[in-house]
Specification:
7-stranded mixed β-sheet, 2 domains, globular, alpha/beta, 18 helices, Alkaline Phosphatase, subunit A, binds zinc ion, Gyrase A, domain 2
């Protein structure tokens, strides 16, 4: 095995990764901008194109990427019309942040912080305190939420500044740790149907002179994972959310801005050995690896002590130019997780971090049988996954 110090650096390969636009056009920049417009102390305008409004609603559609939306105008006539407008900040993409996954993005949205600071930098990451993997979407195994993510949310800061704040989502999310660390502040309202959520979001928006309301829909993502981005089921979901957005937009009270966005996009991966590399069947990739974290297109690889350099070298060799493969400090230096990396977050990041650049996955058929069977996937920095819409309706 080669000595780590002798590994040839690959600055050109890593430099080609389209790093999220933290600070100017990422999901973490949205709520601080709206809060700054509402006069919340300590918040600054990061997305200058957005015009102030007294009542602000963010509708986050899980899994609806910018590229997927633009590719399906027939299923989404209302959203497509918003794409074409040049008013205000309408019709531009934001970058989700790395990795482009729900737990990471919801934390970025709610806290206004980059993944290196809020500390949910993956689907699963190692907890340095226990040495175990932690699933951040399911919060398994349970970890004290406010130790894991100690920062206040933008909703909490806005509520403290007298802004009426509310979240309208599925009842099942009311008390989850992810909701606690990402969306706390104001009142959580659980409603089962999309229609009820839209109606209640409009009501909550009108309930304050200055308001900040968040609402959410999950099944574009769910159907994309199960059936693929171009499936009939996925298209049906797009038709449905297009109607939901219109329903909410038509009920907006005066002096409102509705922002439609998403947590990440999606890419379908063919089911063959060329596009799906099974970690559990690949002795080369497994050598020196203590834990495999992340997800198929955004892996955190935790090496056994002393093996990080070797693991990086082997992963680079095996994966070639199909993945960006970085050591932890290389990924940090390249800005993948944002300009701020808290000390408590550093050890959660993989010793080696592998981000897909082609239509490929690193599955794990034994460790992750369910995830490995998904048609649609996301996580990496390609435009299909990384770009999310920022569409605006104003009254
Ligand atoms: Zn997803």
């Amino acid at each position: 095995m080669a000595q780590p110090a002798l590994d040839p650096p690959e600055p050109l390969a890593l430099a080609s990764a389209p790093v999220p636009e933290y600070g100017t056009g990422s999901l973490a920049d949205l709520l601080p901008t709206l809060a700054a417009h509402l006069g919340v102390p300590g918040c600054t305008v990061a997305v200058p194109e957005l015009a102030p409004a007294d009542r602000n609603c963010v509708f986050l559609i899980d899994g609806l990427g910018w590229e997927q939306l633009r590719a399906h105008p027939e299923q989404a006539p209302y959203l497509t019309a918003l794409l074409g407008s040049s008013r205000g900040g309408t019709g531009r993409p934001l970058t989700a942040g790395y990795p482009a996954t729900t737990a990471t993005s919801l934390a970025s949205v709610g806290t206004g912080l980059v993944p290196g600071a809020h500390g949910l930098p993956g689907y699963t990451v190692r907890n340095p305190e226990t040495g175990e993997l932690m699933n951040q979407l399911r919060w398994n195994p349970w970890t004290q939420p406010h130790v894991w993510q100690p920062y206040p949310t933008i909703f909490q800061r806005a509520a403290k500044a007298g802004v009426h704040t509310a979240q309208v989502s599925a009842p099942a999310f009311a008390t989850t740790p992810l909701t606690k660390v990402a969306l706390s502040g104001g009142t959580f309202h659980g409603r089962l149907s999309g229609e009820e959520r839209m109606d209640l979001a409009a009501e909550q928006l009108a309930a304050g002179d200055r308001s900040l309301v968040y609402t959410y829909y999950s099944e574009v993502d769910g159907n994309g994972h199960r059936y693929g981005v171009d499936s009939d089921a996925w298209r049906g979901q797009l038709v449905y959310v297009d109607g939901l957005v219109q329903r909410l937009a038509e009920q907006l009270p005066p002096r409102s801005a509705l922002y439609v966005t998403a947590d990440h996009g999606m890419i379908d991966i063919p089911f063959d050995e060329l596009h799906r590399i099974d970690f559990d069947e690949d002795w080369e990739l497994r050598a020196g690896v203590a834990l495999l974290g992340g997800e198929g297109r955004a892996r955190h690889v935790y090496a056994v002590p002393g093996a990080a350099g070797d693991v990086r070298a082997v992963w680079r060799e095996v994966l070639g130019d199909r993945f960006w493969v970085a050591g932890r400090d290389e990924a940090i230096a390249a800005g993948w997780f944002g300009p701020q990396i808290d000390e408590r977050v550093y050890g959660r990041l993989g010793d080696v971090i592998a981000a897909a650049r082609d239509d490929v996955l690193i599955t794990a058929s034994e460790r992750e049988p369910n995830e490995s069977a998904m048609v649609g996937n996301h996580g990496s920095m390609t435009p299909l996954e990384q770009l999310v819409p920022l569409l605006e309706v104003r009254t």
